[in-house]
Amino acid sequence: MKNNPEDKKILKKLLKEAGITVDGSKPYDVAVHDEAFYSRVLRYGALGVGESYMEGMWSSKQLDNTFVRVFEARLEDKIKSNAGLLFYLARSRIMNLQMGKRAYKNAQSHYDIGNELYGPMLGKTMAYTCAYWEWGAKTLDQAQTDKFELVCRKLGLKRGMKVLDTGCGWGGLSIYMAKNYGCEVVCFTPAKEQIKFIKANSKGLSIKALDTTWQDFQTTTKFDRIASIGMMEHVGPKNYRAYLTKMKSFLKEDGIMLLHTIGGNKSSLDIDPWIGKYIFPGGVLPTIKQLSTAMEGLMIVDDWHNMGFNYSKTLLCWYNNFKKSYPSLDHDKYDRRFYLMWEYYLLGTSALFRTRSAQLWQVVLSKNGVAGGYRSIR
Prior knowledge:
This protein has 378 residues and is of the alpha/beta class. It folds into 2 domains: 5-81, no CATH class; 101-366, Vaccinia Virus protein VP39 (Rossmann fold), CATH 3.40.50. It is built from 14 helices and 9 strands. The chain has helices at residues 5-17, 37-54, 63-72, 83-94, 101-111, 115-122, 140-155, 172-181, 192-201, 240-250, 273-278, 288-295, 309-325, 336-354, and strands spanning 30-32, 58-60, 162-166, 184-189, 207-211, 223-229, 251-264, 300-306, 358-366. The strands form 2 sheets. A 7-stranded mixed β-sheet has the order 5-4-3-6-7-9-8. The protein has a two-stranded antiparallel ribbon with strand order 1-2. Strand 4, helix 9 (192-201) and strand 5 (207-211) form a beta-alpha-beta unit. It is globular.
């Protein structure tokens, strides 16, 4: 793409509004290595910003702090002439992007790219959702273990309870519930690498790991508790009510469900086009309005906890682990373009939570309200 001098003036002016100088001396300033960068961004918006970074057209010494300034200045709202965005919006209105075979493809395209990548990045717990730092954890492993404990306390787990762990990832929470609380756990994920990991690391525990999606999962078992951790982001707005209705049907009358999900500030049928194309195909961040509409008349909301600021630190830990482990990875599989893509994803998302542009909610739900009232736990 050829550079338009006028595009350069416009984008440099917008960046200046965010306190960012092109080729400036501040660590959060951007260095432009290809003049086509300016027209690429103004033509393709968020998709152009991410793809041009992956192609080495620009860089920043402190990418997360660059994005903090971009988000605080709301620059993304000022660059809307975006053909890529229009395509994603049109597609999401016509198609149900999270159902059927797409659900398997969406999950496997991200979670099956290699445990050799995720193992060093995520740490011993293999937890790929927001950690909990409010109890004084000094390490990522401890903060993730504290998150597991927080979930267990909120659910009021007791020995012998039957628990369903939906979209269970690598099974860290399932293993924790079975090992520390003596629960009988059924968990599922459509990612084959995750299933292999769970089966290899849950021997001797009462855990049944299934290779399936929430749409295909069927059982006659009634569960005391349901943990839905990092699952709702993959369900899709068209399916929120159906998902919660199905989960409710699996609960005992006095059962409790904990819904842990990233949340958006503005309702949409799709996600940032770069994230949707390269990181989480089919992903959408639910909003309070969308969730409350799906829950209305169906479930009682006993507690709603916003712990989103914890995610910024979690993502920085993942990035530091990834950066440290990258030299030992297979660079034919994880090449320079992948490195820049993953860096952009982790640091950009960290900034998103730091600026409160995205949230992380834990919502406690029950069929009829917890008898005697629910005691909030933080």
